[in-house]
Amino acid sequence: MKVLSIKASGKVSTIKIMTQRDNEVALDDIKKLMTSRIGMVLANKISRLAYLYIMFVEKDAQTKQLPTNMAATVLLNDDVGLVRGDVILVRTNHFGSGAKFFTLDDSEIKAIVEKMSTLYGSKIELSDPR
């Protein structure tokens, strides 16, 4: 199964990741894909009642002065601010204690990239998976 990687350079790709039951992803496995401490941000503009999408971002991106990730920033409501550095996007069932994180299926990934393109104002290409 896959998660979506959105790089600050604008490169968007999928990453194959090991899953547990029901395509659940362990938080430790997500942490391995990031270079530093992580925080979670709700991707407001693509989240709906049935699906909540979470972006894992680098917590200290501001102090490290990482570049702005415009492809990820367009997924946030305007009042949230900018996303800096690289991002991993997954689906969740709810927020708070006991929240689980899930991989994305191919049709979901396609729909997310299409929505990102619309919000970004130009076509975002999905790179070859790694």
How would you briefly describe this protein structure?
The protein has about 130 residues and is of the alpha+beta class. The chain contains 3 helices and 7 strands; from the N terminus they run E-E-E-H-E-E-H-E-E-H.
Please give the structural blueprint:
Elements: E1 2-6, E2 12-16, E3 24-25, H1 27-31, E4 38-42, E5 52-58, H2 70-73, E6 87-92, E7 101-102, H3 106-120
Antiparallel strand pairs: 1-2, 1-6, 3-7, 4-5, 5-6, 6-7
SSE pattern: EEEHEEHEEH
- Count up the domains: 1
* Strands, count: 7
The percent range for strand residues is 15-25%
Low-confidence stretches: none
Structural class: alpha+beta
- How widely separated are the two ends? 12 Å
Mean pLDDT over the residues: 90
Biggest sheet features: 7 strands, antiparallel
Q: How many DSSP H or I helices? A: 3
Radius of gyration: 14 Å
The level of helicity is 10-25%
Shape: globular
Structure keywords:
130 residues, alpha+beta, 7 strands, 18% helix, globular
Could you characterize what this model shows?
With 130 residues, the chain is of the alpha+beta class. It has one domain. It is built from three helices and seven strands. The protein has helices at 27-31, 70-73, 106-120; strands at residues 2-6, 12-16, 24-25, 38-42, 52-58, 87-92, 101-102. Strands 1, 2, 3, 4, 5, 6 and 7 form a seven-stranded antiparallel beta sheet that branches. Strand 1 (2-6) and strand 2 (12-16) form a beta hairpin. The model has no long low-confidence stretch (mean pLDDT 90).
